[in-house]
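ugh ok fine here u go
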Amino acid sequence: QVQLVESGGGLVQAGGSLRLSCTASGRTGSTSAMGWFRQAPGKEREFVAAISWSWSTVSTYYAESVKGRFTISRDSTKNTGYLQMNSLKPEDTAVYYCAAARSRLRTDQVLAVTSYQYWGQGTQVTVSE
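structure:
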């Protein structure tokens, strides 16, 4: 089992920045991909970004709505993933969840909630006008 804990959410003005962290514990060596999703009130959970790795390759993926503003990264020595969010907009307001997958994900898999076996509890991000 893998446990995920998000942190770093909060209230920020439009145009500001936040960095979310996702710290994994347990059998972290069994995971090969990590994703960030978000869910706004009354909406479905949506893909934000993902990072997938093997011993030689790291691939990153972004939703069109955040491309150029958000950056996903990972520090394997700390078992922690990050989502750096810049130029935040009110429409970025949501609960942000990190997720981990046991397998390295293909491009067509990273967007799907069902591709990830482990989920954190979420952290609230609120962007004011």
